[in-house]
Amino acid sequence: MSRRSLPLNAVHAFIVTARHLNLTRAAGELCITQGAVSRKIASLESWLGFALFDRHARGLTLTAQGASLLPAMKTNFEQMVFAAEQASKSHAVIRLKAPTCAMRWLVPRLVALEQAQPDLHVSLTTTVDHSTQLENYDAAILYGSAPAGSWRLFDEELTPAIAASLLPAAVLRVEDLARYTFLHPTADGRDWRLWLNQQQAGFSIRRSQHFDTMDLAISAAIQGFGVTVADVTLIETDLAMRRLIAPFSETVKTGAVYSLIQRPAEDAPPQLAALVAWLRQPG
User: Fold this and answer.
1) For the chain, which domains are there?
2) What stretches of 21-102 show up as alpha helix (H) in DSSP?
3) CA 64 to chain centre
4) For the whole prediction, is pTM greater than 0.70?
5) Mean pLDDT, rounded, for 50-77
């Protein structure tokens, strides 16, 4: 009959207890009771056939056999844990958080990345929160001010966009926009005001529809519900496929940027650097 398997939990308890030489402190680190630590040590001693500690009123001391065994057991246990962590990281899914307004730019790049590097897996979470904290994610795309240490992806630069079906036969002039429904990416209409003020437009907006995100406003424009103002980078594909037309060459920068933050290299899954490099490349 083969010998019982080595109780690895008990090995861990032995290593921690040998470091503290105190059952109470060992129990605190292991997040178990002092009695549970004693039972784990006893199970390992039973497996080995000799005592690991001498018990005294003031605490514990290692026996000669325990002291002799500890260095090799500690080294091999740490090597096993390291190997397991590396194996886990090599198959880890990269957790990416991004604002919904960036989806038109981000999703095509993630699809292309999956085709180019099929072993790189990204779990995407969308949010309307522009927090600069990574939380439990490996990387995050941010909108607004670029925090220190972030990668700058692109500046927000706005221009009007409209479905081709709504364009008049003649060249569209700024004042002609007054006859359309204005699709606002924000509740306060500041994006449209910024562009119109730069053009010194002299008309009042008569019809408006407000949306929570730029992506929703762009989708409404594609469906022919009116004219929106959109970031030129976000609508690159829509313009190329003529789902939208940008009738004016004039653009205006809002001061906001799309940026990327990532987990420190020592805490990151191995393929995070490849994702960051892919997202940072132009085009």
Assistant:
1) 8-90 (1.10.10.10), 94-154+257-280 (3.40.190.10), 155-253 (3.40.190.10)
2) 23-30, 34-48, 64-90
3) 50
4) no
5) 91
